[in-house]
Design brief:
This protein has 103 residues and is of the alpha+beta class. It has a domain of 66 residues.
Protein backbone atom coordinates (compact mmCIF):
# COMPACT_ATOMS: atom_id res chain seq x y z
CA UNK A 1 0.00 0.00 0.00
CA UNK A 2 1.42 3.38 -0.98
CA UNK A 3 1.53 6.18 1.60
CA UNK A 4 -0.95 8.99 1.20
CA UNK A 5 0.55 12.12 -0.33
CA UNK A 6 1.16 14.83 2.22
CA UNK A 7 -1.05 17.90 2.05
CA UNK A 8 0.73 21.16 1.25
CA UNK A 9 1.87 22.98 4.38
CA UNK A 10 -0.52 25.86 3.79
CA UNK A 11 -3.44 23.42 3.70
CA UNK A 12 -2.25 21.76 6.91
CA UNK A 13 -1.89 25.14 8.59
CA UNK A 14 -5.35 26.20 7.52
CA UNK A 15 -6.79 22.88 8.72
CA UNK A 16 -5.09 23.18 12.09
CA UNK A 17 -6.12 26.81 12.47
CA UNK A 18 -9.69 25.80 11.77
CA UNK A 19 -9.39 23.27 14.58
CA UNK A 20 -8.31 26.02 16.97
CA UNK A 21 -4.73 24.76 17.09
CA UNK A 22 -1.99 27.31 16.66
CA UNK A 23 0.46 25.08 14.87
CA UNK A 24 2.42 27.98 13.46
CA UNK A 25 3.83 30.58 15.82
CA UNK A 26 5.89 33.59 14.79
CA UNK A 27 8.47 35.55 16.73
CA UNK A 28 10.24 38.76 15.81
CA UNK A 29 14.03 38.90 15.63
CA UNK A 30 16.59 41.60 16.41
CA UNK A 31 17.02 42.03 12.64
CA UNK A 32 14.35 44.13 10.98
CA UNK A 33 14.20 41.95 7.87
CA UNK A 34 13.38 38.50 9.28
CA UNK A 35 10.87 36.70 11.48
CA UNK A 36 11.06 33.27 13.12
CA UNK A 37 8.40 30.58 12.71
CA UNK A 38 8.31 27.69 15.16
CA UNK A 39 6.38 24.79 13.71
CA UNK A 40 6.32 21.15 14.81
CA UNK A 41 9.40 21.75 16.95
CA UNK A 42 11.41 23.27 14.09
CA UNK A 43 12.62 26.85 13.93
CA UNK A 44 12.62 28.54 10.53
CA UNK A 45 14.02 32.01 9.86
CA UNK A 46 11.88 33.74 7.23
CA UNK A 47 13.42 36.63 5.30
CA UNK A 48 11.15 39.49 4.33
CA UNK A 49 11.30 38.87 0.58
CA UNK A 50 8.45 39.77 -1.71
CA UNK A 51 8.42 36.45 -3.58
CA UNK A 52 8.95 34.23 -0.52
CA UNK A 53 5.92 31.97 0.06
CA UNK A 54 6.64 31.73 3.81
CA UNK A 55 6.74 35.53 4.04
CA UNK A 56 3.39 35.70 2.21
CA UNK A 57 1.94 33.25 4.76
CA UNK A 58 3.29 35.41 7.58
CA UNK A 59 1.67 38.52 6.08
CA UNK A 60 -1.65 36.66 5.76
CA UNK A 61 -1.32 35.51 9.38
CA UNK A 62 -0.80 39.13 10.42
CA UNK A 63 -3.76 40.24 8.32
CA UNK A 64 -5.94 37.79 10.25
CA UNK A 65 -5.24 39.87 13.37
CA UNK A 66 -2.46 37.75 14.85
CA UNK A 67 0.60 39.24 16.53
CA UNK A 68 4.07 37.71 16.68
CA UNK A 69 5.93 37.29 19.94
CA UNK A 70 8.43 40.07 20.64
CA UNK A 71 12.10 39.52 19.89
CA UNK A 72 14.39 38.27 22.61
CA UNK A 73 16.48 41.05 24.14
CA UNK A 74 19.99 41.28 22.71
CA UNK A 75 22.65 39.31 24.50
CA UNK A 76 25.14 41.67 26.06
CA UNK A 77 28.34 40.02 27.12
CA UNK A 78 29.87 42.00 29.92
CA UNK A 79 33.57 41.99 30.65
CA UNK A 80 34.48 40.63 27.24
CA UNK A 81 38.24 41.10 26.94
CA UNK A 82 39.59 43.25 24.15
CA UNK A 83 42.05 41.85 21.65
CA UNK A 84 44.90 43.62 23.46
CA UNK A 85 43.84 42.11 26.79
CA UNK A 86 43.86 38.65 25.19
CA UNK A 87 47.34 39.24 23.77
CA UNK A 88 48.60 40.46 27.14
CA UNK A 89 47.20 37.37 28.88
CA UNK A 90 48.76 35.08 26.28
CA UNK A 91 52.14 36.77 26.66
CA UNK A 92 51.89 36.35 30.44
CA UNK A 93 51.17 32.61 30.12
CA UNK A 94 53.96 32.11 27.58
CA UNK A 95 56.37 33.99 29.86
CA UNK A 96 55.38 31.80 32.81
CA UNK A 97 55.91 28.64 30.74
CA UNK A 98 59.34 29.83 29.59
CA UNK A 99 60.34 30.58 33.16
CA UNK A 100 59.16 27.11 34.25
CA UNK A 101 61.42 25.54 31.59
CA UNK A 102 64.41 27.46 32.95
CA UNK A 103 63.97 26.02 36.47
Amino acid sequence: MLPQPRKPRSSRLAQNCNQGDTMSKYKLTQQSDTVIRVEDGYTVVIPFAQHNADYAEYLAWLADGNEPEPADPPVIEEDTPTLQEKVDALELVVGMLLEADDV
